[in-house]
Amino acid sequence: MKNPYLPIPMVVKKAYSETSDRMLRTIELGFLNESDEKGFQFMPGQFCELSVLGKGEAPFGIASSPTEKGSLKFTINKAGRVTTALHHLEEGEEVGLRGPLGNHYPIDRFEGKNVLIIGGGFAFTTLRSLVVYLSHPENRSKVKEITIIYGARMPGLLLYKEELAQWENRKDLNLVVTVDWGDKNWKGKVGLVPNVLEEIAPSSKDTYAVICGPPIMIKFTFPKLMALKFPNERIYTSLEKRMKCGIGKCGRCNIGHLFVCKDGPVFSYAQLEKLPKDY
Amino acid sequence: MSQLAIQEKIREKAKELLSKKEVDLIIGFSNWTLPLRTTPVFIRTPEGTESLIWNSFCENNLATYIHKFSRFRVGIIVKGCDARSLTALSLEKRFNPERVFLIGVPCQRMVDRKKVTKAVKGEILRAEERGEEIIVEGEEFKTVLNKKDYLYPSCQVCTHRTPIQAHVLVDDPVEESPLVEIHPGVNQFEKKTFEERWRFFEKETSRCIRCYACREVCPMCYCTECFVDDYRPKWIGGGLQPQDLQFYHIVRAYHQTGRCSGCGACERACPMDIPLTYLTQKLNQDVKELFGFEVGLNSKTPPPLSTFEVDDKGDFIK
Amino acid sequence: MEKSWEPKILAFLCNWCSYAGADLAGTSRIQYPPNIRVIRVPCSGRINPLFILKALQSGIDGVLVSGCHPGDCHYLSGNYIGRRKFATLKRFLEYLGIEGGRVQFSWVSAAEGGKFSQMVHEITQEIKKLGPAKRFVKREDSRAIKFETQNSKDKTILK
Amino acid sequence: MMRRLDKRDFETFLESVMEECDLYAPVSLTEGVSVFKKIDHPNEVNFSQLLTQKPAKEIFFPQSEPMFNYERRGGKIQITSNEEVKRERILLGARPCDIEAISLIEKVFMSEPYTDLYFLEKRRKTTLIGLGCNPPLSTCFCSSAGGDPFLRSGSDLFLVDLGDAYSVELLTEKGMVFSKNKFLREADPEDLRRIKELEDKAFEKVGFSIPMDGIEKRLDLMMESFFWDRVHEKCIGCRICTYLCPTCHCFDIVDEGDFARGQRMRNWDSCLSPLYSLETSGHNPRPTTRERTRQRLMHKFNYFPKIFNRVGCVGCGRCIQYCPVHFDIRQAIIWTSSKRPRKPKI
């Protein structure tokens, strides 16, 4: 039987800073053992526990898509002990990884439907995974229109800038990038995500919405989605809470009787409505 | 005054404060489900004051709750030690003294329930205090114990039983003399050799389960992040390694230097019966000897470790 | 084995006096034992008792805290405040059964290179006499918890 | 199958058992404090305290347990897991509530899709010997919480103290191993009657006083209740009730060691600690004791039954006995029941 607490060894293939404030760093991890790679099957929305031995472990959403073979990508915000240690990693160093954990975005339900993806700040990681997955030639035909609204505080804080530029040019993706405050080089939209959503007003007909961002953004975006007549069952979001084990044993990430790590992190708004408001 | 009379006076005063709306709530003691014990209650209505009681089992230091209720105007029933803790806390600017009303009760010294429990065979189901005696009853026994023999060690040495800082005293001040001169724990411990002392400390702390009850129950332990929870730097490990337990207990006690009122709440709270007051009492003695300071006697003198005298003793320094 | 053992001593030296004093000892070529490892701190008042305890727990055989003479503190009163902390801490550790000689304090000014060297000699000798620290030292093999039960009083605990 | 073990033979019986197994039993650390611990000599076993301070869950889920060791050697990380248990174990003298609690924790640790091997390995290699409670304490309310003072389920063997001897019931396959043991003699026909007597007495004492039925449904409606504003007031946020609780199973995972080598430890953690749910951003979803007390009670009486169809409390009463401010969980349950006025009187 597999011990779910044992990390598998991974090697840092590439590590680079994402944003101008250097607080967000992306690391690309490669598998050291082939058998681990074969056993690692995941879908967009799932997360992993990364450990720097001696410092501890912490959960991170997988930013790469299953279609990108050979490596896993994580974008990490420097905040505490483990994330700082992860920021200090250099190429060639070893890290531990447990996963994939949790559930994923309900991609099978998206089939034949439109998808509206709303992201804010550095919560865009698993959404990037979703976009890359859906826009992959193999999967693109499965869904109809893909609309992406992505906002950050400043242009310098946008993640995956090169990719955003590529998506901009793609005809089969509707990408709207917005910032709260532009600078003199910024030519795109300026405005908060909820307002931009209101402005674009995508149709809710046959559309699933996936939303992920800071709590304040989510709080103001939900009403706008409601106003656009999105039913609760078709709005999905990904939650975060303090986690330790990631497999529903250690007890801290519960909301009501559900565990964010095991029963989530992806929940539909309909599910969330049934859960207690504060916990 | 008898305890019942004191209890009546407490209720009267609490009722008055609440009905005049001078305070939002009264923190006091009430009877509860187990014998030999009382529980803190928080009373907001004049009628509720009927549940306030006073006896020799009102052992909790209610000053602890000032942190939780500092945004209300509170009336607190205080013993000598509680009042001194509160004075020390007001020196550390933990609350606005104007919003706190102290109902002082000269303390008759509290009864050590653990000692009583050990004195009888079987579970105690009922206990009653009658003057200087405690009558404990179980299924198969009824014993009369002399209260004097079952007092908390920290209460035996107490020389500040009257809460002189209180806004109102419900009874006349009691005579301030200790039952024993030196804390029994300190006394016994000091007689041991170096080696024995460390072994005793080692053995006692090895039982610690790190529930941190001693920390939480202490009015002076209010740091939002305790050193045990720091992780940058990480001072101590999170497990049960003996040295980590010792580290915790040394620092917890040492952090009370010049702040501990000697109420003994830490020791009473411990589920594993680890003696703790022999540490804090020793520090209190040291502080008194070195700096002539006793905690919470007046609201002007700053705590000794936050100030200095130019001619402090320094003969241990090379 | 006994002979080759040399104590490790951690010295917290204040930036303005003792560190300069140690420096002076060096530049004047006054020799002192190499047992001390120096950590420079802004002031002896900066010393948190946790530093001393953590050092002892990590297996250091002795700790030295040294600062400016009373009245000379760069920050006016840092060493006075420190002195009260040290006095209580030293007494407390001795009370608990940790050898008093393991925790040492001194005042060394920037001009006292000779005193510094002299003092380090003394302290090193003293700690050598005490032998390697045993109490309170965290070792890798000490992770196992051993309880002493009432019926097994003769057994040794917590080796 | 019923047997009888003379108290005279008790120590020799344990000695013979200890030749093959590690024996865990309650021992007294000092007067009035006992814990379950591995026994070196049979005379350490001490049943005088009905409930040990730390519950028997510690044998399966230690307070501080290394999960694996790691070592960096030449740029490679070596990981050695510590889940394996080499010798068979026997847990002796656990009370029915503790054993019931172990099966509750088992549900959590074995629940799909992940199995906690550290727990499983210890559980699989342990024979449980239960011990009936005669007489139970006044704080016991196991009958109300779905157990009883002589509950056999979960035990492999079950002992009842008959004064001069223990009656031994062999209940499971693991227990039947002892059927040939020479110290276990033929049971006295009188024994059954005496056990019945003791049981009746114990039942009478414990009673069904706590309204546990339907508590899950009641709490469903009480998430925002005024109740929580009051019930938490006296709680000071120590961890006694959670660490001494036989069913609490939350833990923390931390690394101890340095870059080169160390261990990943799993330590008990408590929902009453503010750091339990504090996120790195500084946001704490459970900022005060109100939310934390609610989490503790809701988890036991609402969330747990929702997942496992049984309240997460076995009624051992430890949290009542040892709470420094005397929070009584029984009273809290009564307050949630319909018998209570809408607002607590005080």
Helices, strands, pairings?
The complex is a heterotetramer of chains A (279), B (318), C (159) and D (346).
Chain A: E1 8-17, E2 24-31, H1 34-39, E3 47-52, E4 56-61, E5 71-77, H2 81-87, E6 94-101, H3 107-110, E7 114-120, H4 125-135, H5 137-140, E8 146-152, H6 161-169, E9 174-179, E10 189-190, H7 193-200, E11 207-212, H8 215-227, E12 235-238, E13 254-255, E14 258-259, E15 266-268, H9 269-274
Parallel strand pairs in A: 7-8, 7-11, 8-9, 9-10, 11-12
Antiparallel strand pairs in A: 1-2, 1-6, 2-5, 3-4, 3-6, 12-15, 13-14
Chain C: E1 9-14, H1 18-27, E2 36-41, H2 49-57, E3 62-67, H3 78-96, E4 103-107, H4 113-130
Parallel strand pairs in C: 1-2, 1-3, 3-4
Helix pairs in contact in C: 1-4
Chain D: E1 2-6, H1 10-18, E2 22-30, E3 33-38, E4 64-73, E5 76-81, E6 89-94, H2 96-110, H3 117-124, E7 126-131, E8 157-161, E9 165-170, H4 173-176, E10 185-186, H5 189-206, H6 215-220, H7 227-231, H8 240-243, E11 251-257, E12 261-268, H9 289-308, H10 318-322, H11 329-336
Parallel strand pairs in D: 2-6, 6-7, 7-8
Antiparallel strand pairs in D: 1-9, 1-10, 2-3, 4-5, 4-12, 8-9, 11-12
Folded structure, characterized:
The complex is a heterotetramer of chains A (279), B (318), C (159) and D (346). Chain A is of the alpha/beta class. Helices cover 24% and strands 30% of the residues of chain A. Chain B is an alpha/beta fold and 318 residues long. Chain B folds into two domains: 3-112 and 151-305, no CATH class; 113-150, no CATH class. Helix content of chain B is 31%, strand content 13%. Chain B has helices at 3-19, 80-91, 113-119, 153-156, 184-191, 194-205, 213-216, 242-254, 265-269, 277-291, and strands spanning 25-31, 38-43, 74-78, 100-104, 126-130, 133-137, 142-146, 168-169. Chain B has a five-stranded mixed beta sheet with strand order 2-1-3-4-8. A three-stranded antiparallel beta sheet of chain B has the order 5-6-7, with no helix packed on it. In chain B, helix 5 crosses helix 10. The model of chain B has no long low-confidence stretch (mean pLDDT 91). Chain C has one domain (9-152): 3-Layer(aba) Sandwich (Rossmann fold), CATH 3.40.50. The interface between B and C is large, with 51 and 45 residues.
First and last CA, distance of chain D = 54 Å
> N-to-C SSE series of chain C?
EHEHEHEH
Number of strands of chain D: 12
Largest pleated sheet of chain D: 8 strands, mixed
Helix content estimate of chain D: 25-40%
Counting helices, strands and paired strands, the structural category of chain C is: alpha/beta
- DSSP summary: helix tally of chain D: 11
Shape of chain C: globular
State the low-pLDDT regions of chain D, or none: none
Give the beta-strand count of chain C: 4
Average of pLDDT of chain D? 89
User: From the 3D coordinates, which CATH architecture of chain C would you assign?
Assistant: 3-Layer(aba) Sandwich
Query: Going across the major beta sheet of chain D, what is the strand order?
Result: 3-2-6-7-8-9-1-10
How many domains would you count in the coordinates of chain D? 2
State the end-to-end distance of chain C: 20 Å
Helix content of chain C: 25-40%
Number of domains of chain C: 1
**Gyration radius of chain C, to the nearest Å?**
18 Å
